[in-house]
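Because discrete structure vocabularies remain unfamiliar, we turn briefly to a single example record, giving the amino acid sequence and backbone structure tokens:
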Amino acid sequence: MSKDQAKVPNLLQNPVVKKIAREHHVTEVQVLLRHLAQSGIAVIPKSTNPSRIQLNDQIFNIQLTSDEMKQLNDFDQGEAGRTFFFEFEGIAARPEYPLKESAELSVQY
């Protein structure tokens, strides 16, 4: 990971996301998926778990307010936030990790 690469924030633990989820009686994941869908972004969540598939489908049962949308939009970090490196903390140690050479190179920065 390069020195200037920001760590990927855990939005599921973000107090704003948690508060919005509580107010709508939904999960944090549903809030984030709904935010994307309500922003006009096609959302294609991956799951093989039937209960999670059902939860994902329920994002269309809620409507975020304009204030909630603004709060979530404020998380945008510009171009730096849209640059994603797969080498998040601990991933290179996983036996399934396919990019060993890339991980070794990123440690040298």
